[in-house]
């Protein structure tokens, strides 16, 4: 399992755990290596990589080294044990021992599970050359048939700086919180996990640190419960035996040591065969009715029970550091409340400081900060003064001295008459005011009264010295003290023109304010609204003036538009701007609106504007047919526009325009004229003339006096024009229309404009045409046309307006003007009117 970098980035910042899914029993070679003290170490970041180390050792490569780079989690998280994938220990048995170094670097391993093997632990058998250090085993469940240890099942090597808080149990033989069986060295280790047996045997050994010890256990502590029906059980070791067996400077605060058949002790179940227990203790308030050693036939020195109170003192940590004062301080133990802990940079070792006053001594012990509580100063003899406590290097120690070793400090006295002290007087800002040499017993005095310059916020008055000067007994510094008074400042609020609105006194740091909202009278052009102060009001730090500022807006006036005595419209108009003439304009029967008075181009006050009218002159417009009958009338205002109406149709005639009484043509329907007087308008028509003609298809020829139309593969000639079809040439003196495959044909068919013309009198209108014509507005729609036929659209003057080849049975085209048109498709001809 590789670290999940993206999804758990936040967790990676909070803790260096590398977990997600539980370990499945697989292994993978570590990706990185590093050098430590000249030796090569595999860098372990996952359970798989740690399992690879175990596999290598168990396959014969047993001297490799490994170091953790982060916490290793075998379960799904740090709160679970991985019971689905049992761990095979590194150095799984006596023929596959681990001879390398496993360095935890202070990281933790979570959720390791072993069961059923002969050796159970993170490491099975640790050889004499092997080292396990700085590893924290958490949430582990260690079980074995014979040898079970929180860190190592059977230890020949060195285990140091390790902790275990998981459970350890064995079916038979040996169980220990750190090592099941120890014949090597276990030091500076802590167990807080439970240790137990599941069966009974006369040879079962159960201990908080080691089940069976024939080696060295030093500077260790146990707080885990010991529970089993084993024969030998102890807070530190169940069985301690042999001339090399020694347990020293350790303690147990286990809360339970239950067994049915046991030789049990607060520290050791049985101690025999030249074994030693030195300077070890158990909490007799937690384990009552027991001795330190259940059965002792060897050496036990200062192995006893102590009360909780005595074990939770700095002195007890010093006892562990010095083997109860018999050895140099090991600097191993500190205490920061509660029981002793291992010293580190934040918890300094505990030292003993002896204060010696000419043979009278007082023993004091440093705290976790290296500081010690001093005794009261001794009384000097007459004529002498106590100078202080001095160490063996004649350096004076003080209450702020951080001690780094056990030591004795001695009281030093000096003859008073020859002693002078340096006494200095400082101002409150640490400025030196005076320095004096004052004889012992004399009281120093400062000449004058110190002063401290005022700040913007405060003024100061001398209040005395921080300590009232007394008879000099040591070098001393006096500091002036002052009472402070917050300064007041004048704040003035002014109107825009400098008129004083308010003047008040405010303390430094206060926020000044004007009680009311300032106002400014309007002018004819502007209204004013208070907008704030210039500068912006801030907390008082000095005398200040603030001037009111105003936003201005143009005054709005009412403009009333009157139509006679009635109000036609009203508008609110800003000063200096113009009103807008109402739309639509007012009306009055028989009159024409001509404007407003007076002018409203620049408003400077309320204004009434009246509508102006002039009498309306109407002209009669009479519409006549060509036979003199009145067909329509209209009243039209003089000098206004009039749109010529549609003309009635007249069978056999073509409408040619509207004409006035003088015979002048006014225009066609839809045209606009200006009426300047009474007007008579008459419709004018011209008769439509038809001539005899024939239309032949395919191979026929038609001739007339003025035009010819040729279709498909025939030709038609006349004196003035000729129309050639297919691939023949097209020639005419005045016009020609080519159909079918002529040179005028478009690649996609279409309608083409033409400037040619033909004689409309030569066209024969079809009685039963095969195509239909419709008109919608000015859109000409053609239906049922034969695809491939040639078509043309002409006006009545014979001008060809559109022509082309039919591509679709239905098509349409836009015509620009109203009027009559002629449409020809092949030999079929129709007439249509467009309004």
Describe the structure.
The protein is mainly beta. It folds into seven domains: 86-321, Pectate Lyase C-like (3 Solenoid); 333-418, Sandwich (Immunoglobulin-like), CATH 2.60.40.4270; 420-486, Immunoglobulin-like (Sandwich); 488-554, Listeria-Bacteroides repeat domain (Immunoglobulin-like, Sandwich); 556-615, Sandwich (Immunoglobulin-like), CATH 2.60.40.4270; 618-687, Sandwich (Immunoglobulin-like), CATH 2.60.40; 735-834, Immunoglobulin-like, CATH 2.60.40. The chain is built from four helices and 74 strands. The strands form 14 sheets. The chain has a 19-stranded mixed beta sheet that branches. Strand 54 (556-563) and strand 55 form a beta hairpin. The longest helix has 12 residues, at 47-58. It is elongated and about 160 Å long. The two termini are 89 Å apart.
Look at the structure and give the CATH class of the largest domain: Mainly Beta
> Care to count the β-strands?
74
Stretches where pLDDT is under 50 for at least 5 consecutive residues are: 1-19, 691-755
Major beta-sheet overview: 19 strands, mixed
Radius of gyration: 61 Å
At CATH level 2, the architecture of the largest domain is: 3 Solenoid
Our count of domains comes out at 7
What's the end-to-end separation, in Å? Answer: 89 Å
Shape: elongated
Class based on secondary structure composition and strand pairing: mainly beta
SS element count, helices: 4
Keywords: Signal
Organism: Fibrobacter intestinalis
Main location: other
Protein name: Listeria/Bacterioides repeat-containing protein
């Amino acid at each position: 399992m590789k670290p999940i970098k993206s999804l758990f980035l936040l967790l990676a910042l909070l803790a260096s755990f590398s977990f997600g899914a539980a370990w499945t029993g697989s292994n993978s070679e570590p990706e990185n290596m590093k050098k430590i003290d000249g030796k090569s170490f595999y860098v372990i970041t996952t359970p798989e990589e740690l399992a690879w180390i175990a596999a290598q050792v168990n396959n014969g490569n047993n001297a490799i080294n490994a170091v953790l780079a982060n916490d290793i989690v075998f379960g799904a998280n740090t709160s679970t044990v991985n019971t689905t994938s049992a761990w095979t220990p590194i150095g799984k048995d006596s023929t596959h021992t681990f001879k390398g170094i496993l360095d935890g670097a202070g990281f933790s391993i979570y959720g390791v599970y072993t069961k059923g093997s002969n050796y159970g632990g993170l490491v099975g058998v640790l050889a004499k050359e092997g080292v396990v250090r700085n590893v924290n085993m958490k949430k582990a469940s260690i079980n074995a048939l014979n040898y079970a240890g929180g860190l190592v099942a059977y230890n020949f090597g060195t285990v140091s700086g390790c902790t275990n808080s998981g459970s350890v149990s064995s079916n038979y033989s040996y169980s220990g919180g750190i090592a099941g069986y120890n014949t090597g060295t276990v030091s500076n280790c802590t167990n807080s996990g439970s240790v137990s047996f599941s069966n009974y045997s006369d040879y079962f050994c159960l201990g908080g640190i080691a089940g069976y010890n024939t080696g060295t256990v030093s500077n260790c502590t146990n707080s885990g419960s010991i529970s089993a029906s084993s024969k030998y059980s102890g807070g530190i070791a169940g069985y301690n035996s042999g001339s090399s067996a020694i347990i020293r400077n350790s303690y147990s605060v286990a809360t339970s040591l239950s067994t049915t058949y046991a030789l049990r002790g607060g520290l050791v179940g049985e101690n025999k065969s030249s074994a030693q227990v030195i300077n070890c203790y158990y909490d007799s308030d937690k384990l009552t009715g027991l001795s330190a050693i259940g059965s002792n036939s060897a050496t036990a020195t200062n192995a006893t029970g102590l009360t909780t109170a005595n074990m939770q003192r700095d002195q007890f940590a010093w006892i562990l550091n010095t083997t109860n004062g018999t050895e140099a301080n090991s600097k191993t133990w500190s205490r920061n409340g509660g029981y002793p802990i291992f010293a580190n940079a934040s918890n300094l070792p505990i030292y003993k400081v002896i204060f010696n006053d000419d043979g009278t001594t007082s023993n004091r012990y440093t705290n976790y900060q290296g500081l010690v509580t001093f005794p009261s100063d001794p009384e000097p003899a007459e004529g002498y003064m106590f100078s202080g406590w001095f160490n063996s290097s004649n350096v004076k120690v003080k209450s702020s001295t951080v001690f780094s070793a056990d030591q004795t400090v001695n009281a030093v006295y000096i003859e008073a008459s020859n002693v002078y002290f340096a006494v200095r007087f400082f101002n409150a800002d640490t400025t030196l005011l005076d320095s004096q040499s004052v004889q012992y017993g004399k009281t120093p005095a400062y000449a004058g009264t110190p002063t401290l310059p005022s700040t913007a916020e405060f003024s100061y008055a001398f209040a005395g010295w921080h300590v009232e000067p007394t008879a000099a007994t040591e070098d001393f510094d006096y500091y002036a003290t002052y009472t402070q008074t917050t300064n007041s400042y004048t704040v003035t609020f002014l109107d825009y023109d400098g008129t004083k609105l308010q003047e008040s006194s405010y303390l430094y740091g206060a926020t000044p304010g004007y009680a009311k909202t300032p106002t400014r009278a309007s002018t004819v052009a502007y209204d004013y609204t208070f907008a704030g102060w210039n500068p912006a009001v801030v907390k008082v730090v000095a005398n200040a003036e603030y001037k009111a500022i105003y936003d201005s807006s143009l005054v709005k006036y009412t403009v009333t538009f009157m139509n006679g005595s009635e109000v036609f419209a009203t508008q609110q108009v800003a000063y200096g701007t113009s009103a807008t003439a109402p739309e639509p304009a007012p009306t009055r029967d028989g009159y024409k609106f001509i404007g407003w008075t007076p002018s409203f181009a620049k408003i400077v006050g309320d204004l009434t504007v009246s509508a102006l009218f002039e009498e309306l002159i109407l002209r009669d417009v009479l519409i006549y047919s060509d036979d003199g009958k009145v067909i329509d009338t209209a009243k039209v205002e003089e000098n206004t526009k009039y749109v010529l109406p549609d003309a009635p149709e007249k069978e056999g005639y073509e409408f040619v325009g509207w004409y006035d009484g003088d015979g002048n043509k006014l225009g066609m329907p839809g045209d606009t004229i200006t009426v300047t007087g009474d007007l008579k308008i008459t419709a004018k028509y011209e008769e439509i003339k038809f001539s005899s003609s024939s239309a032949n298809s395919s191979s026929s020829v038609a001739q007339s006096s003025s035009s010819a139309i040729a279709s498909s593969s025939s030709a038609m000639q006349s004196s003035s024009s000729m129309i050639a079809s297919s691939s023949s040439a097209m020639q005419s003196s005045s016009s020609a229309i080519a159909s079918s495959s002529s040179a005028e044909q478009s690649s996609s068919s279409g309608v083409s404009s033409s400037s040619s013309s033909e004689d409309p009198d030569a066209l024969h209108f079809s009685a039963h045409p095969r195509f239909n014509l419709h008109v919608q507005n000015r859109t000409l729609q053609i239906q049922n046309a034969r695809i491939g036929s040639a078509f043309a659209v002409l006006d009545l003057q014979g001008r060809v307006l559109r022509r082309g080849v039919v591509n679709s049975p239905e098509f349409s085209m836009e015509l620009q003007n109203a009027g009559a048109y002629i449409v020809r498709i092949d030999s079929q001809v129709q007439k249509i009117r467009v309004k």
